[in-house]
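Narrative of accomplishments. A recurring question from our advisory board has been how the design workflow behaves on a single, concrete structure rather than in aggregate. To address it, we present the structure tokens for one chain from the evaluation set, followed by the sequence designed for it. No filtering or post-editing was applied between the two.
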């Protein structure tokens, strides 16, 4: 397996394409916004004219799209990948979607004899770019083994978690903790700042304390510096919160902390920060504490 197609070359798609190119894979990319793929051309990425072009020239195709609707359209729509890809091409769904949609995609692919994997990643775009991410895989273990070299070029670990849908559930659970940890970090920094603790000093204290976490490492510096260039856009994470809450409702599981964090992030997005990183949620808490910064 040497030729990999990527549909959706946004923040994560760009990071994944970069890892694959560095790993010696041939990569063909397609995005509905052509400008997204231009920076990767000089590094060897081949720009596809459309989905059919990707399908005809790849051993495996990763879909990395911003919404469940776009995933469904690309895979299940007229002329979509499940319909148009050769039987030998493995279709790999890497977006954050509902477990139910993932299972439906797997069933549709199986009906057409197409190999399919549900394989979302855990990691911001910056983490993926340096290989510091994990891929959760749901589907046939044999299909996973065939794709393992490509996954190894992207992530430090690939974990088979069960059938299609289970990997998407694992991603929602992971993102639930990411969202809550980010909000808790923001709240702690605001409390400290209001009492006179320098946020930069506080982050250093927390790094060596029982409160250390991956989100502290990734988003602590962003919050201290008020630098919110997106590694994960707030608007996209709001979609994830919606999926978490819907899954909780379906399973009869109360998610009160998730609901509250969603509301804080919704307020942050409403203030014009939806295109910024999730770390921007600190600005809402600063405003509530009378610590608003420019």
């Amino acid at each position: 397996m040497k030729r990999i197609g990527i549909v959706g070359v946004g923040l994560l798609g760009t990071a994944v394409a970069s890892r694959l190119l560095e790993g010696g894979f041939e990569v063909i990319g397609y995005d509905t916004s052509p400008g997204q793929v231009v920076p990767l051309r000089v590094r060897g990425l081949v720009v596809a004219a459309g989905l059919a072009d990707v399908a005809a020239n790849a051993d495996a195709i990763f879909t990395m799209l911003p919404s469940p609707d776009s995933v469904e359209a690309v895979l299940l729509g007229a002329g979509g990948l499940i319909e148009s890809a050769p039987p030998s091409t493995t279709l790999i769904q890497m977006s954050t979607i509902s477990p139910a949609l993932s299972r439906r995609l797997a069933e549709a692919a199986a009906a057409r004899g197409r190999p399919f994997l549900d394989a979302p990643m855990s990691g911001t775009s910056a983490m993926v770019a340096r290989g510091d991410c994990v891929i959760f895989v749901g589907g046939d273990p044999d299909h996973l083994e065939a794709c393992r070299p490509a996954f190894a070029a992207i992530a430090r670990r690939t974990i088979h978690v069960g059938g299609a849908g289970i990997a998407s559930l694992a991603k929602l659970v992971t993102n639930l903790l990411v969202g809550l940890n980010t909000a808790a970090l923001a709240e702690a920094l605001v409390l400290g700042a209001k009492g006179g603790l320098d946020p930069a000093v506080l982050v250093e204290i927390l790094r060596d304390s029982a409160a250390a976490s991956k989100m502290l490492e990734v988003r602590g510096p962003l919050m201290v510096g008020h630098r919110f260039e997106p590694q994960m856009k707030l608007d996209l994470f709001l979609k994830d919160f919606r999926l978490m809450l819907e899954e909780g409702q379906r399973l009869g599981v109360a998610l009160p902390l998730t609901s509250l964090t969603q509301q804080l992030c919704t307020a942050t997005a409403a203030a014009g920060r939806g295109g910024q990183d999730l770390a921007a949620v600190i600005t809402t808490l600063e405003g509530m504490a009378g610590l608003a910064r420019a």
